[in-house]
Amino acid sequence: MLNNMGLSKAARIILVGAPGVGKGTQAERLLQRFPQLSAISSGDLLRDNVKNQTPLGIKAESAIKSGALVPDAMILRLILHELKHRGWIQPPKGTVGLNLSTTAREQDFGAEDHFVNSPTLANLAAPPRTSDDPSASFILDGFPRTAGQAGQLDNLIPINLVVSLRTPAEVIIERIAGRWVHAPSGRVYNTTFNAPKVAGRDDITGEKLTKREDDDEETWMNRLAKFEETSEPLLNHYAQKGVLWEVSGNSSDEISPKLFKEFEERFAEGPRDP
Ligand code: AMP
């Protein structure tokens, strides 16, 4: 299999899937195979702002701590600034007075920030200009989480592939039930496909393995119910835009080759002349 493939145009993608389906694994594999892709995580951007105690970080901190979603306007501003900073979106032609030189972290997110505080942010008369250069390719992680956020993002930068990752619930539950960790090192085992040499013991230290706190069936069923509630309108939104693609499999290894193939057909450079 070829490694490190080039892209022919900008890929702007989102992975959607139930907790435990392996979104992180697929994202990591895509990033490895397509070096022009980068990941933008709304959670990481927020945590960065909290750590640096920016005005936005201070406002968002309590929502993040309680596990609630932060307000849409806040998260949109964060993404917008990140995309501007990377040079992947530019203000609409003829627009003046937008400060494009600051990073999400440096930006003063105060009330005087006209562009991002504009009530017309989601309905700009002309949408920002989007770079189609392959280097402007990204996987958005954690955003958009709702159809409302997706609609607002459409006005800033059009996503051109939404991957819905599907694994039967009973398979994910089995995977979670079989998962054991060695907490001090982070080594993960699975009694069905990656069992420790000695049952219940870490291979290297021989210490006892434990369960992760959120690895129980009831917790997972609750998270799944929440996910299904919000993902359905989100997926419908993108189905209507014609950018939704679904892939099913019982494991990450089963899903990856299908995902790579689809991704390559849409975005990879054709074979070059020798
Ligand atoms: P994550 O790392 O994606 O789990 O995000 C951590 C926290 O950041 C979430 O629990 C929310 O409080 C906040 N957050 C991240 N992304 C979003 C989003 N798209 N909309 C609202 N809140 C978000």
Automatic annotation (TrEMBL):
CDD domains: ADK. Residues 179-214 form the Adenylate kinase active site lid domain. Gene3D superfamilies: P-loop containing nucleotide triphosphate hydrolases. It holds the Pfam family ADK_lid. One of its GO terms (cellular component) is mitochondrial matrix. GO terms for biological process: ADP biosynthetic process; AMP metabolic process; GTP metabolic process; ITP metabolic process. It is found in: Mitochondrion matrix. Keywords: GTP-binding, Hydrolase, Kinase, Mitochondrion, Nucleotide-binding, Transferase. Residues 41-70 are annotated as: NMPbind. The keyword Nucleus does not apply. This is GTP:AMP phosphotransferase, mitochondrial. It comes from Amylocarpus encephaloides.
